[in-house]
Amino acid sequence: MGLLLVRYAEMGLKSPGVRRYFEKVLTHNMMAALARERLEAFVESQYGRLFVTTDRPEETAATLRRVFGISSLSHVRECSSEVKDIRRLALEVATPLLKDGSTFRVEARRNGVHPYTSMQLAAQAGEEIYEAHKHRGVRVDLHHPDLVVYVEVRDRRAYVFSEYLDGPGGLPMGSQGKVVALIRDERDALAAWMMMKRGCRALFVVENEETMRILERWDPEPRKVSGPAGKAVQANKAFGLVVGWSLDELQDNITLNTDVPVYHPLVGMGNEEVERRLKEIKG
Q1: Is residue 227 exposed (0-12), middle (13-18) or buried (19+ Cβ within 10 Å)?
Q2: Do residues 224 and 182 lie in contact, with contact meaning Cβ atoms separated by under 8 Å?
Q3: How far is CA 4 from the centre of its chain?
Q4: Cβ(46)–Cβ(8) below 8 Å
Q5: For residue 281, what are the CA distances in angstroms to 84, 111, 193?
Q6: 204-218: pLDDT as tens digits
Q7: Of 43, 67, 140, 218, which is the most buried if we count CB atoms within 10 A?
């Protein structure tokens, strides 16, 4: 079985009650995304972190990197918070990744009460790695190392890893209400994606099925609605309508002939930024 440590950013700034609600929404979205890919996992919440246990960690990580609200995740190995166990595990993690003559450093952080500081723990784990590999010319470099070994101690458990995998960030989709997204071209898809990243559940009025496939990778439970976009907003009690218009289109007085609020997430973007972001969400 593999273990993933999942981090969120903005959610951690909320009050405890709001954070618990956001964690509940995020966990639901994670499980929905995994279910769509037929991946089984167990999700456990600890303060500021989510832990995912699965027998298919690589595929699970790839899927979770498309879940809004996740800032990053890591494949981790687990041991007790005892220094001797952390030293042993740090060496096990580092050994297959160190090449002859390479450099490394250890970064440690803690949550809870322990008989050592984070700096002391980093020094202890670093000493274990250095002593085992100094005959290969391996050195410590605190500024520009070839490898960073991370240690995160949470109460009585410790987690050791070597890599951060970026997520999309933002807020859990569905935590900030509903919007109706008109999907006609790729700009509309990007506009909807940006509102989804800010926590909105998008209801899609689809006029281009090929473009819609871009968003289906990011929404495990896409909901399509029919009829005029303005009426769809009212019928579903959504906050408003989302479109991908540019500033030039607005200046040309293009209208949707609707009396509901219209959101324009791309209005401040140039064509180069739009293309760059589209390439990212397609990838």
Answers
A1: exposed
A2: no
A3: 12
A4: no
A5: 43, 34, 8
A6: 999 999 999 999 999
A7: 67
Please give the Cα distance from 115 to 97 (Å, whole number): 29
* Six-digit token string for 245: 């218009």
Longest dimension (CA), the chain: 74
Last-in-domain residue among 55, 71, 87: 71
- Reported pTM: 0.91
Tens of pLDDT, residues 74-121: 999 999 999 999 999 999 999 999 999 999 999 999 999 999 999 999
Encoded amino acid at 128, one letter: E
In a domain, residue 149? The reply is: yes
Torsion of CA 46, 56, 93, 156, to 10 degrees: 20
Domain of 133 in residue numbering reads as 78-161
What's CA 199's distance to the chain center, in Å? 13
Cα dihedral sign, 25-68-169-191: negative
CA proximity to 59, closest of 24, 25, 33: 33
Residue 37 is part of a domain; what is its CATH number?
Answer: 3.30.70.1510
- Residue 100 main-chain phi, psi, to 5 deg: -55, 130
Final residue in a domain of this structure, among 107, 133, 161? 161
**Beta-sheet strands, E only, within the chain:** 2-7, 42-46, 49-54, 72-80, 103-111, 139-140, 147-154, 157-161, 165-166, 178-183, 201-206, 223-224, 241-242, 262-263
